[in-house]
Each structure stands twice: as C-alpha cells, then as structure tokens.
Amino acid sequence: MKNIIELQRELVQAARPSGFETPQAAILKELARPFADEITVDTLGNVICHKKGPGKRLMIAAHMDVIGFMVTFIDECGFLRFEPLGGHMPARLVGTPVRTESGVCGSIWADAEAKLAHAKLTDVDVHDLYIDIGAKSREEAERLAPVGSVCVYDAPVSAAAGGNLMTPYADDLIGCVTLLLAMEQMGESKNDVYFVFSVQEEVGCRGAVTAAWQIDPYMGISCDVCPTGDTPGEPEHQRMQVALGKGPAVKIKDGGMQSNPQTVAHLRRAAEAAGVVWQDEILLGGSTDARSMQVSRSGVLAGCVSIPCRNVHTPAELVNLRDVEQAARLLARAAMLEL
Ligand SMILES: [Zn+2]
After folding, report:
1. Same domain, 29 and 8
2. Which one from 10, 201, 202, 317 is the annotated catalytic residue?
3. Is 201 marked active-site?
4. Within this chain, do residues 172 and 194 fall inside the same structural domain, yes or no?
5. Domain end: 153, 186, 212, which one?
6. Smaller CB count within 10 Å for the chain: N or C?
C-alpha cells in the first residue's frame, strides 16, 4: 500500500463535506478491498468493510466526511454567502483559500474588514463572511458555484519538521488512513470485525448511528483526532495532557461520552500486547462516532483511539506520522484480541 502521506494526499484531493462523501468513499472502497471479505455501502453512504470471524462483533469507525461550506446566496457582483458544514471558528476563516466541488478556487473574506480588526475573535459571525471566486457577475458565479454547492479548504499536504505532517482534514481522513493500515496489518481473529468509513460525523455523528444499528456490535471503537495541550499560551492547569508525538491516545472521556471501562481496558491490553506507548485522553468538548455507537439499540461498549492533532478544524492541522503508525498497530491488535 502507499505510504501515509500519499494516502492522505489522495483523500484530501477528493474530500467533500458531510453529506457529499461519494468521491472519498470510492477511493476508500478501492483501497480497503484487498483487506476485507465483503464491502457494502449503506443508504447514507457509510462504507462497511467486513472481516468475518466466528466471535463477537466489533465495529471500528473513522469518519470520511470533512468540514466545509455550502453556498447559500450569490449577490449581484458574484460574491458567495455560505453556511458552515461542521464546526468552524468564523474569525479564523478570513483569508482561507477554498475550492468548490467543481474545482473552482476562491477565498474567504469579511465584510467591513477594518471593523472586524477591532472585534473580539468570538464576535465574528459566519454571516459577516463571503467567498470571492473572482466571478464578474451573479450569472458567472451561479454557473460555477450554484446555491447548494459545497466547498472545502484548499490547502497542501506537506511533510513538516519533527516527523510531523501538516494537512487539512487530518480530522478525520488521517483516521481513515489509520483504519486502512490497521486492516492491512490485522491477522486472523476470532472477532467478527467491521471497519466502517462513516459519513456525516461533523454534523452530528449521524452515519455511525445507522451503521451501528445495522451491525449491532458488542463493542464500538472510533478512530478520530483529539486536540493537544502542547502549544503556547494556555495556563498550565487548563491544558490537555495529550501531546503531539507521544503516541496514540486512549479516550477516557470527552464532551459527549464516557468510554466504557471494559473498552478502555481492551484498548490498553491491545497497546501493551503491540508494544505501543499510549496517552490517556480526557477531552472537555466535542465527541466522536463512539458516542453514536455507545447509545445504539440496547447499548454498545464504546471507546476511541485518538490521533493527537494540533490546530484541529483548520487547513493546517498537524499530526505526527509515528502516532499514526502506532495507532494503526494498536487498532490492529484490538481487532485481533478476543472480546
Ligand atoms: Zn473528527
């Protein structure tokens, strides 16, 4: 298989936002094919890769949708207004290059830039922002990026210092890459394992709801990114303990879920068996597909393996390549360790 950077680049180039995942789904389906007994795509578009075993069902999910924007209005000069798809901090978006689903490039700017310069970051509203694609008129813009079309960050995937990777959409395309690596490494297992590339996580973990209902797993593990506490500025006592490059994180709790102790124990056992050094993760805000799995049907033992990630939900997310490799080793072992 290709290396981590090549896989991430291929996925980033195809990436579309929540609800529009068809291009990245097609790539993932092809890449996963050699490692699955059966691959199905459900009604919402979840790609479900089954590695059959006689034992209990295990679902391991990474979401393939990314955050983005949907065009809502085009003014007479050809500037686009938009709604966010997924969580964005509007003040951070000013100056961001984007591209539409048809490949038209543009960038995000703010009304009354001078006024915003004195506003608090939290005061900037997404409706103060517009996308400039360089169109000369409403007609031209409507042809290139009609209302209802979607845009994503247009940013490079680059090797950075320290064995790190700077990329848009580490969240969660790097989780999808991790799943592919884990599938490739996984040997024989008694567990009946389902690797799922899920849709619509960024708009409320929706794809995992229907996938978990269908699979009805005994245990559900998501693989997603988590923020780190190793950047300047935050008071020490408020920092997250997780740091970039110190290994994958086993989630204990986030803003929407407490991992079941049985799942945490299973993941720690897997890490020890695979010789993977892990970090403990407690994340105060946000959640993952594991939340949807946990409350599926009559309840599923749930947990999460996180890839530490700086600058989450920006075009310049930073992850460590060794953390990704180690997370894949951990997940492969978790899939093989009998439930
Ligand atoms: Zn995510």
Report:
1. yes
2. 201
3. yes
4. yes
5. 153
6. N
Helix or strand run (H / E) with residue 127: none
State whether residue 161 is helix, strand or coil. helix
In tens, the pLDDT along 175-196 reads 999 999 999 999 999 999 999 9
Residues 186 and 236 in one domain: yes
CA of 274 to the centre of ligand 1 (A): 25
Residue 160 lies in a domain: no
161 within some domain: no
Q: Determine the distance separating the centroid of ligand 1 and the alpha carbon of 113, expressed in angstroms.
A: 31
Distance 290 CA to ligand 1 centre (A): 11
Ramachandran angles phi, psi of 195, nearest 5°: -95, 125
Mean pLDDT value across the chain: 96
43 and 182, same domain (yes or no): yes
**Owning domain of residue 88:** 68-153
Ligand 1 centroid – CA 66 distance (Å): 8
Burial class, 85, CB count within 10 angstroms (exposed 0-12 / middle 13-18 / buried 19+): buried
Model confidence, pTM = 0.96
Least confident piece of the model among 77-86, 91-100, 104-113: 104-113
Q: If you measure from the C-alpha of residue 200 to the centroid of ligand 1, how many angstroms do you get, rounded to a whole number?
A: 10
What pLDDT shows up at residue 235? 81
Non-local (6+) Cβ contacts of 298 within 8 A are none
* Neighbour count for residue 237 (Cβ, 10 Å): 5
Same-domain check for residues 145 and 174? no
pLDDT at position 100 is: 96
CATH number at residue 292: 3.40.630.10
